[in-house]
Specification:
17 strands, 15 helices, 2 domains, Dihydrodipicolinate Reductase, domain 2, alpha/beta, single chain
Length: 430
């Protein structure tokens, strides 16, 4: 019988820390050890975990053992109740903490982004060069449409190869998130430090991390990525979303901007440097990524997503917006349609039933729409516990999976360089 893992949650400051515990699992002991500084962040974490325990359908059974104090890190090293540490909090602390924990022999599952400063790549290289296992929480690999895009992309009869047309992106992602949103059925309360770039970082290292990872994951051929060899033509810029005082109050629960942010306020609104554009080439493939933040998610809606993979035989287009009912959809637009292509696509869908049971196909204009059954759809919130379960399964196998270290190093080195380039662009604008 596989031994159950005792989890440690270190100074939780982001709701993602609690989402890793959304579901129970045979690999995880019900006793969860929390080491944190005292304050509202750990209180919020505890409330959300208790909500998972108290729900009517499929409740969890976590027992939290919480240590609060400024010396929480020293207490962790002295007690060492488990081997696995989960970190999801202030981004400026992550890279030094992960580096320290890794050196102390802990296995680390860390929320993105790991770094918010270009100068932190030296620590990153040390972490990724050797055991124990350290991974970031890349939830988007578990979104059904992303999985289907990758699956169809790898079928030459359907997709062909990526269509390379000069600098036009062969892969293009556009993602829109919202600062005021619902999580687990309740409005998300973000801490005030989330809006301080010295703690949270900037947009180029936030959601962009997920999309850079998706490009690696979809295009990888099994060999490790290397930044110096595989990445070229980086171009990046950032810009702000203005947050009025009234919206800041709704998001944080505070009546006014805290003293540490007031010097940044312009005309009653806080400029939040959260939007980013990044283009680059990965192994000769032109990529374009845009990540945007709105103030409040649409009524009845959520995040917006648009992703295009341009192939020599067809384009694979993912959409999530109001017109799709805020469900992700996947369309296949062939360069040359006709009976032969329709038969090949029908055959491909039939052959995918074992991995994607119930998957369907229907005509859509001159192309096709993939019919995704409800049973295959999972939520963003569910993906965090899936990532944790995969991480623990990899630990039990005793080996770092799928070039984890090199690929992670390449991903964050790219983001660090993009961050520096975006600052150059801001200096030119100013």
């Amino acid at each position: 019988m596989t031994q159950r893992h005792t989890l440690i949650i270190l100074n939780p400051g982001h709701f993602h820390a609690a989402l890793t515990l959304r579901e129970s699992h045979p690999l995880i002991d019900d006793d969860i050890h929390v080491f944190a500084e005292d304050g509202p962040d750990v209180d919020t974490f505890i409330r959300l975990v208790h909500a998972f325990n108290d729900r009517v359908v499929n409740p969890t059974h976590w027992t939290l053992y919480v240590y609060r104090g400024a010396d929480y890190l020293e207490k962790l090293f002295a007690q060492r109740p488990g081997q696995v540490v989960i970190i999801a909090g202030r981004n400026n602390e992550k890279m030094p903490l992960i580096h320290l924990l890794h050196a102390q022999g802990f296995c680390v599952l860390g929320d993105k982004p790991w770094l918010i400063e270009s100068g932190q790549t030296a620590l990153l290289k040390e972490i990724t060069a050797s055991a124990p296992l350290a991974m970031d929480i890349m939830t988007e690999r578990h979104e059904i449409v992303n999985r289907l895009q990758k699956a169809f992309m790898r079928q030459p009869a359907i997709f062909g190869g990526l269509r390379l047309e000069g600098l036009r992106p062969a892969i293009a992602f556009r993602s829109v998130h919202h600062l005021y949103k619902m999580v687990n059925g309740a409005p998300l309360r973000r801490p005030a430090w989330y809006f301080d770039p010295a703690s949270q970082g900037e947009g180029i290292t936030d959601v962009t991390t997920h999309l850079v990872d998706l490009v690696q994951w979809m295009t990888g051929d099994g060999s490790p990525f290397d930044f110096d060899r595989d990445v070229a033509r980086i171009c990046a810029r950032q810009w702000s979303t203005a947050i009025p005082r009234s919206m800041f109050s709704r998001i944080t629960g505070l009546e006014d901007f805290p003293p540490g942010l007031r010097n940044q306020v312009v005309d009653g609104a806080l400029p939040f440097l959260c939007n980013a554009m990044l283009s680059y080439e990965l192994r000769g493939i032109p990529v374009e990524i845009e990540t945007l933040w709105g103030l409040e998610e649409p009524v009845g809606g959520g995040d917006l997503h648009h992703a295009v993979l341009r192939g020599s035989k067809a384009d694979l287009i993912a959409e999530q917006d109001g017109e799709t009912g805020f469900l992700t959809t996947l369309s296949i637009n062939p360069a040359k349609g006709g009976k032969a292509y329709a038969e090949a696509l029908t055959c491909a869908v039939e052959q995918m039933q074992e991995e994607f049971p119930g998957l369907g196909l229907e005509p859509e204009g001159e192309g096709f729409r993939i019919v995704i059954p409800k049973a295959l759809r999972t939520t963003h919130e569910q993906h965090f516990s899936v990532v944790l379960q995969s991480f623990l399964a990899d630990l039990d196998q005793g080996a770092s999976p799928g070039n984890t270290g090199p690929d992670l190093n390449c991903r964050y080195t790219l983001l660090a360089q993009a961050l520096a380039l975006s600052h150059d662009a801001l200096d030119i604008q100013n």
